Amino acid sequence: MNKKYLVTVFRQRLHESMTMREMSQSALARQAGIDRSTLSQLLAEDEVRMPRADTVAGIASVLQVSSDWLLGLTADRRFGAEILKQSLEVAPHEASPADANLARWYAEAAGLKVRYVPTNIPDIFKTEELIEYEYGSITERPVDRAIEESRQQLRFGRMVDNDMEICMSVHAINDLCAGHSLWSNLPAPIRRRQVQQIVNIVEELYPRVRIYLFDGLKRYAAPYTIFGNKRAVLYLGQMFFAFNTSEYVSILIRHFDDLIRNTVINAHEAADYLRQLDVK
């Protein structure tokens, strides 16, 4: 963009904002702390100079628009704080049950691709035995709610038009099989049934549901879900942060695609790999 274009855009948007606010030149100049002659020059058709940054900031503040919008750098006239507030949705259990938000987000994503990095074992695969073990002592997320979330994801995966990609660390599966870490007190028979459940669902739902395993020593991912191009949701433990703007969603889509490019077990290999695992 050349300077003449930017000056023209600034002048047009300045005129537009003053008209919307029904603000005169003298009132704007007084409230923005600039000389009226300076403002008159900025509004003049033959003006070719860009205004100073502090002048733009003062005018933008009075007119309640963003400086970037006035300068033609964005199509969004809102303040940065207002944009952030509308782009970020926080869903804690206490104030706004995360379960209800999850149901809504999945419903809104019908027919779209869902990309999912789980905390450990993906909810869509969990047996009730595993859920009872995992959430039995957590009061913030009762077992029945966790079971319903798992069934909800399974229903989503079984819908013909839906598409889900799951990317997780191969070490999470290996820990389950070996009874390490989180699963150290989970009996081997339950862990065997859990692995078999994963195999069964992977075989039933492939290719609509595809699971990829990456090397956790080479890549790291916090748990998150991306609902099409509409929303990216990070899970922080008892709280979700949902980003609703395309810029944030695109960043996490690129991160997810990088995980898939670096997988050690691809989706078409997953069932065979899981079937041969030795659960101790």
Describe the structure.
This protein is an alpha+beta fold and 280 residues long. The chain folds into two domains: 3-77, 434 Repressor (Amino-terminal Domain), CATH 1.10.260.40; 88-275, Endonuclease Chain A (Endonuclease, Chain A). The protein contains 13 helices and eight strands. An eight-stranded mixed β-sheet has the order 1-7-6-5-2-3-4-8, with helices on both faces. Helix 2 crosses helix 4 (53-63) and helix 7 packs parallel to helix 9. The longest helix is centred in the N-terminal third of the chain and has 19 residues, at 3-21. The chain starts with a helix and ends in a 5-residue tail after the last helix. Residues 93-98 have low confidence and may be disordered.
CATH topology of the largest domain: Endonuclease, Chain A
Overall pLDDT score: 86
Helical content band? 40-55%
Distance between the termini: 64 Å
The CATH homologous superfamily of the largest domain corresponds to: Endonuclease Chain A
Which CATH architecture of the largest domain would you pick?
2-Layer Sandwich
In short:
The protein has 280 residues and is α+β, with helices and mostly antiparallel strands. 51% of the residues lie in helices and 14% in strands. An eight-stranded mixed β-sheet has the order 1-7-6-5-2-3-4-8, sandwiched between helices.
